[in-house]
């Protein structure tokens, strides 16, 4: 079975209009997705199932609630969002209403055991961005199980906030960097190309579009691609995130440096670039960013 991040496989969403269909889903133990409509005062979640409204009891709402490892805000934040679950049984209310009893925790336990716990460092997976913070990006790696990409692992080109590189709900590829203390940490930069792979898209004498990333007394760092930035002469009329056109004065593989000159600055702030992946495999053992002629080493061993 494949365990997708929540909300990425719309065909998994299902509506029920008769009790027999609910019973069939119980027997098949299929993983279903649905939208949470309400989180009540007891932090039980209610899910739209078509002709029925299912209930996820608080302790079944997320892996970690029962264990006291996560707070109930993890449940409250699911209102109007898609979650995965199994239908565990049917409850009949005093008024005769059929209420499907659901469990998200059951699915997450299985996903943890059958998928997440089997991942090895260097494995490349798909994930969905769930929250962007200054220190890193939280991602759903499967069935609502969250992990983190630290900000310094998002790209070689430095950024000051994760929203400069990613967007909420974006589907990305990411590689497992470490499993220290059973805590998974992921990385992105190793999938976005080496120096040589990036720099071959640019040549001295060209004028291209870039994004201002840092303004220093000695010059302005301008990103040409997520894993490639160059340095322009000092200018203090620019701001971080601003789009600029730049003339490429020179490219040095040995020093891994690109000299730029700002031609024109545009008023708009740059949106995160669409990511281009240079790795097609499902696993990598190591990654060398630096070219052979450079004395500087940028290397990752998984």
List keywords for this structure.
mainly beta, elongated, five-stranded antiparallel sheet
Report the principal-axis shape: elongated
Gap from first CA to last CA:
26 Å
DSSP strand tally: 17
- How much of the sequence lies in strands comes to 35-45%
Q: In angstroms, what is the radius of gyration?
A: 24 Å
Quick recap of the structure?
By secondary structure, this protein is mainly β. The protein is 10% helix and 39% strand.
Detailed description of the structure:
- This protein has 302 residues and is mainly β.
- It contains 4 helices and 17 strands.
- Strands 3-2-1-4-5 form a 5-stranded antiparallel sheet. It has a 5-stranded antiparallel sheet with strand order 8-7-6-9-10.
- Strand 11 (207-216) and strand 12 (219-225) form a beta hairpin.
- The mean pLDDT is 95.
Layout of helices and strands:
Blueprint lengths: L18 H10 L3 E8 L5 E4 L4 E4 L16 H4 L5 E11 L5 E6 H11 L9 E9 L3 E7 L2 E6 L20 E8 L6 E3 L7 H5 L7 E10 L2 E7 L2 E5 L9 E11 L4 E13 L16 E3 L10 E3 L1
Parallel strand pairs: 13-15
Antiparallel strand pairs: 1-2, 1-4, 2-3, 4-5, 6-7, 6-9, 7-8, 9-10, 11-12, 11-14, 12-13, 14-15, 16-17
